[in-house]
Amino acid sequence: MLVATGLCGVLAAPSLAAASVPRAVVKSTTFAGYDAGVTGTVSTFSGLVSIPTVTCPATGSVTLQPGVLIHTSGNFFRFEESVDCAAGTAPPPAFFASIYLATGGDDIAAASFAVSAGDVVKMLLNITSGKATMTIIDAKAKERALASAPVTGTLTSVQVGTSVNGSTPTVVPRFTTISFIAVKVGTASLATLSVDKYEIYKGNELQVATSKRSTKGTFKNNFVHA
């Protein structure tokens, strides 16, 4: 596609689906994961993501981005690792938290730290009194970073998963399983939200699969085919 120690305040939960069955399974050329619309006054997000081992294609340029994209009426937020493959190699990986205006342009606040394959990064977003704080934590590496900025609105949509960009048709770098763990929007588990499920395809060939959500809001993206 797509740095406060905890969540605070009593927040209304988003609108919940009666069951956790996705509304649809969408074939995409660039994104695998789940996309949820959010209703009500919801001002927090939390979850964890595992950092994969990535094997870049021998030729060409392509970017693998596991992470989360969150929108409000006036802003959007990205939690993501960005693996920029070029001619078989990529720079050392880092994980980012960034805040943008809804109109786009450069980030208005950002934070990052280096990560390694096998790390698990905790992601937190808290919006209070018109100010957003994004927190990323890598307990294994003892890293922590925060990004804060004035924002408008509360959560309207949350997209969690893995994006692949930069080549046409899409060439997917080989990667080990990416786990999104205990994802919550407000007080609600991802498992209870009404969502669309996405998987990456090249024509009819599945490239990146998306697993079912557990009751705790955990799922996996798995490499299937380049």
Describe this structure in words.
- This protein has 226 residues and is mainly beta.
- It has a single domain, classed as Jelly Rolls (Sandwich).
- It has no helices and 19 strands.
- It has strands at 24-28, 31-37, 44-50, 54-55, 61-71, 75-81, 83-86, 94-101, 109-114, 120-128, 131-138, 143-150, 157-165, 174-175, 178-185, 188-189, 195-202, 205-210, 219-223.
- The strands form 2 sheets. It has a 17-stranded mixed β-sheet that branches. Strands 4-14 form a two-stranded antiparallel sheet.
- The protein is globular, with a radius of gyration of 17 Å.
- The two termini are 17 Å apart.
- The relative contact order is 0.28.
Care to give the gist of this entry?
This protein is an all-beta fold. The protein has no helices and 19 strands.
The tally of structural domains comes to: 1
Structural class: mainly beta
Number of strands: 19
List segments where confidence is low: pLDDT < 50 over at least 5 consecutive residues: 1-19
Tell me the strand percentage band: over 45%
Assigned CATH class: Mainly Beta
Count of discrete alpha- or pi-helical segments spanning 4 or more residues? 0
Fraction in helix: under 10%
> What does the average pLDDT come to?
91
- Cα distance spanning the termini: 17 Å
Shape: globular
